[in-house]
Design brief:
216 residues, four-stranded mixed beta sheet, 4 helices, elongated, Ribosomal Protein L25, Chain P, RNA Polymerase Alpha Subunit, Chain A, domain 2, single chain, 13 strands, alpha+beta
Length: 216
Amino acid sequence: MHENAPVLSAKLRDRVGSRYSQRIRKAGGLPAVVYGHGKEPVAISVDARDALLHVHKGEKVYQIQLEGESAAQVVLLKDLQFDHLGTNVVHADFARVDLDERVHVRVPIHLIGEAIGLKTAGAVLMHPNNEIEIECRVADMPEGIEVDVAGLEAGKIIHASDLQLPLADMKLVTEAGAIIAQIIIHTHLEEAEAAAVAGQSQPEVISERKKDEAGA
């Protein structure tokens, strides 16, 4: 088993559909589906509070302990569905996996160190991509990748291709040129506003136009 995989106790759902899923959520459950590995999809429910606690921590691999079964299934969280406001998780999809199976997963990026370039006046550290996609074994899936930015100078960029993945057999799926961290020099807002104003035409002065028309 995956050493750090949380165990989620699950029950079979005998009925599916929005009405029954709503009842499950009101009772504190989270409707879900387990599929893959040549087996039929199974509709289940797990404890919402327990499951979402791990989801919000960024956990990807789980053990589903289905009621009445002795062995737990190792699964990978594949998708979350949210309500119409996009705030609450209302459904989860889990895919059965083997620990030796190679999968594509998104891994969070953690910047460490204080960039030397920030000592430059007006310097700002940009972090446009806070996660990357990699290919790796399920058993080797990292919780995150640390990127040391201490040596990053003003005007310099750390691309995805510059990252050192934890294991040699891991592969970068994210575009190599994706920017992970960059130091830019902040231009003064007043200068930007002045340039914008300079590019606009002057508004017509109605009183002057009417005076000219009257004298014509």
